């Protein structure tokens, strides 16, 4: 048996570059029936640090010349792990160069950029070139299983979704100013970073689109001291929203970087007419399920062979970690490429998320009144 | 040692009448240093059922004549456990008759009624007559302790409060129409019933007033079948709000009667600059505390002698039940009467809660835009 | 409708006397269809403190003369809340005087005393006089439900029971010497106090008798300072046992007063051929259930009307406290008296528990080798 | 900077071979400052399946000739992932051939084999050849941190350890007979498989040796049907023990393959004079800690940079999985090789565990009486 092999270029060697490298290095070991990967080139700006990273992470070469990478026929896939304001131009260039593209979330910093990317992806599809946005939590087995359970009607019609993403890394008001707290570089604060995951999950789990948004944003520590003295924080520390969905559900959203003692608390509760579900990313191998009209919630360790993705991993009770989601994401992406199918979440999905985030900001600026995420500003 | 004894009249023999009777019957046993109670008269409409209740619940007599009760000099305290639309007239009459008054929450069905009651209470105070509204959860030891911890600065400045009150008794869309689902009798749905507790706790725990409200309300099952056929449900099944507080905090609120599998889930999370707190009424003897800059949350069984109210009860680890809150509430009320102090929560507190609930409805009617709870409609 | 009324004498006014008084005072209010109680007399040694207790706890009179109480025809029930070494003589005297007897657990300090009590109860039964031992945790709704579930085969054949009762009030090695730490007054340490509950639950839940016992006991702090200087601790701080049951199950037991941070942790896990159950007394309204071959455990709030005892109490989600078990125990006892049925747990049950506790000590003294609890020493 | 590179041979391609391969493939990426690995050869019996595994798992070659592997100078490390009865001869041969050896736990099936291995390891050490046994849970960050906390005196003197390892894969009494249920091939049942981890943790966490053992073993389903008809199960389904430790602590042990609904429940509770700890492998990123005399337990997500191993992995709140323990184990082993230090746990540690397991069986055969694990049979 032979396996199709894809040459991959990862752009970026920081946190996300490392997580994605890990995925490409391991995908064949866990998904041996799928395509193979050649870790062709790690791309960045500083050759010395790139070389050190490449050696440790398993890359065959490094490059500081993105255009050359796009021109290299040995590169089949471009995987962008760079800051959000670079996504649009780099992704569009790669698609136009005929490379399949994986972009780390959020898709872009603005709706306009996201729209341009979605348009480019549509055009590329006609040439057999694929694009995907990396909302990796879609590959958390518990969340993938939750999505199946909802789709199969196991909790009936979903009425309420209660979603929070709570972290605490800005609680200390003497924490220094960084580029992440400036609107021009970061786009937004907790909204783009945390609410993007939350909104993607609401759309994915419910299979419903957002029709109306009421939003509030707040910056609890409005000034922080940085290298250049005290500076204004121009992004949100926390945000709240109520989303009206086209299937009749209402979702509440709360995201924060000031939630003391919460490290990575993406908490999702779904309440349906015949059941409910509860998930917390800090316990990512568990799903609490109330199915088929049951009276209470079962804590289920999502490590059984019949659970999504688990066949690839370990026996029951042998839990997965956060980074395994990237390996499964890579496997799904590669399989779509090999089979000529559209991978998901698509750039259209990424755009829809961006529209909701922008609508939260617009509503907040309009005293919280309802905003349609599809309307032009 | 002698103890002042108060003659008590409870009005109502249903769920709340029973819970309050239990409190009056037990208060001396648990708070032996406080005043004594004579369970003088149980008041209602049907003499036969009243007599059966009175015999079992420990009342010395029954009455169907509220005016006679108010005229009876043996009655010192009137405790109203009747539906909300009767609170205002009955409480004002009792205060005017010189009786101390305890009213079960919420204070009233409308701001106007609540305002009239607060005015009557102010007038009565000058005559030494006292009034209190029965937000019994203020006497949950874990919540009373939480309030102390916040007041003592143990979690620093509170920035975010995340509060939900989730029940599930309306999940079944074939559940029948009742008076609780009609606006004219019930005033509102989850708002008055559940959000009133939640708003009272936000105000009490944070010691802050609500300046601005964004609200959303929704009825998931708009029609239900009753004795007279299919009828429109005219109250909310669920409500959401964001509250801006005068100390700079933001509180999110979500209440629902459609939260499948949640029986009595009043969940309160506070996030401060130096700690946090977490509470769930379904585990009412526990408080998760992150204090004084600690890195994580300690699950604390709030049953130690130094915890509020616990000296009156059992040794460590011997947990309290829901109904014990009423006994402690009665003890607090009696001690205030004996000492000539104003009991709390006052009718002013009850009015402030009512104003926030009304503001949520007004905001919801105005597309979610910000509303000032103090503004005249 | 008239109700049979029983005159009750409680002996003892300390912790247990107070808990039992509470039960007699409240039983009619929660179980209105059952018999009525007249709180006739509170019995003890010091008249002044008795009178203060009686006034607060609702007793009509006090007495320091136990023989007079036994001679009083107004007393139908004698409820013994005195130290264990007094149980045997006082209970036997009461039974011989024709009084129904309730004895707080454990039944006695020695097997010989327990045997004499069981014999006396057998003799009394023939005269229509009833006896019960107060293992109040049999009236925890979650545990009563657990027993039903096992009896109904919902977890199949029980194979393993894993039971611990963990407290921490002796962790501090400077805690002072007391009578509870001397064998002559207390009989034993954690064994009699904690393991008695644990063994009673194993027998009740499984419906099986103990055939063989392997035991270990240990005193971690062998000397403590008391009023008379440093003294040897002559009872166990902790004990461990493995019990072979006649239905083929094996139960493990661990009890301790040195389990730092555990306040009242009676934790019971049952593993059967088709399911399992998990309970923790610190969360006494909850039972985790894995029934009928299910794959995982549901956390169930045991507050639904169909759960044992709950019809008498509050609506779903309104949790009970530790002391409610005594009220339900009193109700069960009274109903048995009125209906001429044998209440349970019987003195025979109390004796069986005592035999297992003694067997643990004998096994521990014999290097841990297996001991038959029924064998004569 | 150059890194010493070690050629590795893994023997075995099943569950453990796959887990260990994963570790060797990833160690440089997560521990870039340590030595490098060349995945030289995957060793087994069937060339075809070996080649398929090797391609997916990243091995450069395969071999079915273990002697040739031992003779190959490109092999520095031999990693044995074969059944327990093969450990002794293969490990001793490798050590004699001058290869560093890692052996998957348990060290061997019998004390005699383990003793021979420990002797061989001692002899090899003099030639600079290293040996380690793969109790991978020593590299669970929460357990490594727990060990530090105990060693640093943060919970005072440990008095009680309460350890269980509960799985449920044999609950179904129609599950078929396998080699794992025959004494001649498996050595023992839950004892060798599960109790070996538990005993290793007790020794590691407490830093104490086992002086005395009381044990019980049981086979709940004594006959199962296999390919050759119904056969007797000759290993234990569950085992219980009480261990006396040389520092004065007492540890209780319970292991089972019949614990319905428990998938991988290695639960460890430590109770000390000034605190306690609680761990459950099903939530392996968490440790509940009660430190320095605190009153209650803090649930701590063990994902902070200051926690053991975490510097190598992801930011706070980004949880690790079961398999990451093998990567950290490989990193520790390699670093010891490079620095000429003895890796731990040593074969002596593995022998000590084996002696305790054997003592449990001997005690069980002697009616549960105390056995010294060091005594010759």
UniProtKB/TrEMBL annotation, chains A, B, C, D:
Please give one Pfam family short name: GFO_IDH_MocA_C3
Q: Is the keyword Lyase in the record?
A: no
| Keyword Zinc assigned | no
What Gene3D superfamilies does the entry give?
Dihydrodipicolinate Reductase, domain 2, NAD(P)-binding Rossmann-like Domain
What does UniProt give as the signal peptide span? none
**InterPro entries per the record?**
Gfo/Idh/MocA-like_OxRdtase_N, Gfo/Idh/MocA_oxidrdct_glycsds, GFO_IDH_MocA-like_dom, NAD(P)-bd_dom_sf
Chain ranges of the Gfo/Idh/MocA-like oxidoreductase N-terminal domain? 8-135
Q: Where is the GFO/IDH/MocA-like oxidoreductase domain?
A: 146-278
Annotated PANTHER family: BCDNA.GH03377 (PTHR43818)
Which named protein is this?
A: Gfo/Idh/MocA family protein
* Taxonomic lineage from the root: Bacteria, Bacillati, Actinomycetota, Actinomycetes, Propionibacteriales
């Amino acid at each position: 048996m032979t396996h199709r092999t894809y040459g991959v270029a990862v752009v970026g060697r920081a946190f996300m570059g490392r997580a994605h490298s890990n995925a490409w290095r391991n995908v064949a070991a866990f998904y041996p029936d799928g395509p193979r990967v050649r870790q062709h080139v790690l791309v960045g700006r500083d050759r010395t640090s790139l070389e050190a990273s490449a050696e440790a992470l398993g890359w065959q070469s490094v490059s500081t010349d993105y255009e050359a990478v796009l021109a290299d026929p040995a590169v089949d896939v471009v995987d962008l792990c760079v800051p959000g304001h670079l996504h649009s131009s780099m992704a569009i260039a790669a698609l136009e160069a005929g490379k399949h593209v994986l972009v780390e979330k959020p898709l872009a910093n603005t709706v306009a950029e996201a729209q341009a990317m979605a348009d480019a992806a549509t055009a590329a599809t006609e040439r057999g070139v694929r694009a995907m946005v990396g909302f990796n939590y879609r590959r958390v087995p518990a969340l993938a299983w939750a999505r199946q359970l909802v789709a199969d009607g196991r909790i009936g019609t979903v009425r309420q979704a209660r979603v929070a993403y709570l972290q605490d890394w800005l609680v200390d008001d003497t924490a220094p100013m960084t580029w992440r707290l400036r609107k021009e570089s970061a786009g937004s604060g907790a909204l783009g970073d945390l609410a993007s995951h939350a909104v993607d999950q609401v759309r994915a789990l419910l299979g419903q689109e957002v029709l109306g948004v009421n939003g509030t944003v707040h910056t609890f520590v409005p000034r922080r001291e940085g290298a250049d003295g005290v500076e204004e924080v121009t992004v949100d520390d926390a945000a709240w929203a109520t989303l009206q969905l086209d299937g009749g559900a209402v979702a509440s959203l709360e995201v924060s970087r000031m939630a003391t003692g919460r490290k990575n608390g993406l908490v999702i509760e779904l309440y349906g007419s015949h059941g409910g579900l509860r998930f917390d990313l800090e316990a990512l191998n568990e799903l609490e399920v109330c199915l088929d009209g049951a009276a209470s919630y079962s804590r289920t360790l999502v490590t059984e062979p019949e659970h999504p993705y688990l066949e690839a991993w370990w026996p029951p009770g042998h839990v997965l970690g956060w980074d395994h989601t990237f390996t499964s994401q890579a496997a799904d992406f590669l399989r779509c490429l090999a089979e000529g199918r559209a991978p998901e979440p698509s750039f259209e999905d990424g755009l829809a998320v961006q529209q909701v985030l922008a609508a939260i900001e617009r509503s907040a600026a309009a005293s919280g009144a309802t905003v349609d995420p599809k309307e032009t500003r």
